[in-house]
Design a protein that fits this description.
Elements (H helix, E strand, L loop, with lengths): L6 E3 L5 E3 L15 H12 L2 H15 L4 H4 L4 H28 L27 H29 L12 H26 L4 H10 L14 H7 L13 H11 L12 E4 L3 E4 L3 H9 L11 H5 L7 H20 L7
Antiparallel strand pairs: 1-2, 3-4
Helix pairs in contact: 2-9, 4-5, 5-9, 6-9
The structure holds zinc ion (2 copies).
């Protein structure tokens, strides 16, 4: 595909999409029903539909029976851990293999013209972004994800919590299922904003931001404290009436879904003429500029708090003006006493 029909490339080889990012027309006033209907398919396809199918498959074919889950036993816990590791290894690995190892589309549609593997850096374990990212993903990420899953499935099996069934409350469960990506994004915005404050940024979140030029393996490359916060959104199923299928879907949206923002390409080419939009640009801008796009634009918080960057030159100017105001505020504040 000719990516320059869809955007521009600068001298460094970085691709910028021609269309600026638009926040979802969900929480807008006045309502925009036609725009909402045009936007809606993208809420489901391809990503959330894929995560739901994964959750459904896991629930039907790869989750132990309720009687087994009622007793904590290392064998089924190890099984969940291996199953989650395998899903991440296969999915993240497949995207990484095609786009970053085989480099099947070169740097067409790639936001950062360089490939992380071409640049060694001391900030990473063994000087390699990929090795560092994989150690963090499989070393603490998947075990913490699995711990949340074990907790939730065990509590369901012993009947602790407001669990219900699709026969009893079908519409409430469908509504919760539809809202899960928005619940995840709301929670992510809150914890993400929090860990960008000092000193949490330095101690915790800087680990994730070491990957300035992210690839799929960067998705779950986080400090263990961030892993703990990141998956805590699933605890909402102990507050709202829910079903374990929705827990498994939610864990996919949060866990596997982290890949969406870290693909590094605006489109994945499918044949010579077609490409699949990735939805990766908003979070790529976050990795590039740090203090923009704390969430991905479905929820309106970045727009409300003035931290939305739509990828355009105007978006850049707004961000620079905000940074200027911040600098001026810091310079104007009285020096703290040393006594
Ligand atoms: Zn990220
Ligand atoms: Zn961040």
């Amino acid at each position: 595909m000719d990516d320059l029909k869809y955007g521009t490339r600068n001298k460094r080889g970085d691709f910028t999409p021609g269309e600026k990012l638009e926040g979802a027309p969900v929480f807008v006033w006045p309502p925009r029903p036609l725009k909402f209907l045009r936007w809606l398919p993208g809420y489901f396809f391809p990503w959330n539909a894929l995560f739901f199918l994964l959750g459904l498959g896991i629930w039907n074919w790869a989750t132990p029976a309720k009687e087994t889950l009622a007793t904590l036993d290392w064998r089924w816990i190890a099984y969940l851990w291996l199953r989650n590791s395998a899903i991440v290894f296969v999915l993240f690995g497949a995207v990484e293999l095609r786009l970053y190892v085989q480099r099947s589309q070169g740097n067409r549609f790639k936001f950062n013209g360089l490939f992380p593997a071409d640049k060694k850096s001391d900030v990473f374990m063994f000087g390699s972004q990929n090795v560092d990212n994989m150690i963090r993903t499989f070393g603490t990420g998947i075990p913490i994800w699995t711990a949340y899953e074990v907790l939730m499935l065990h509590l369901w099996a012993i009947g602790w919590g407001p669990w219900t069934t699709f026969a009893e409350h079908p519409w409430a469960l469908v509504a919760l299922g539809l809202a899960i990506p928005m619940i995840h994004e709301t929670h992510f915005f809150c914890i993400h904003w929090l860990i960008h404050r000092a000193p949490l940024y330095k101690w915790v979140h800087s680990v994730h931001h070491n990957s300035v030029n992210p690839s799929p393996w960067s998705s779950l490359s986080m400090h263990p404290v961030e892993h703990l916060l990141y998956w805590s959104d699933v605890l909402i199923h102990l507050v709202l009436p829910s079903h374990p299928l929705l827990v498994l879907y939610h864990l996919q949206v949060t866990g596997t879904g982290a890949i969406v923002g870290h693909i590094g390409f605006d489109k994945i080419e499918i044949g010579d003429e077609r490409g699949m939009g990735t939805h990766a640009y908003a979070h790529y801008l976050h990795h590039k500029y740090f203090e923009v796009n704390y969430s991905d634009g479905v929820m309106p918080f970045d727009r409300w708090f003035g931290t939305w960057h739509d990828g355009s030159k105007e978006g850049d100017a707004l961000m620079q003006a905000r940074f200027e105001r911040k600098r001026a505020r810091i310079n104007a504040s009285p020096p703290t006493s040393t006594q």
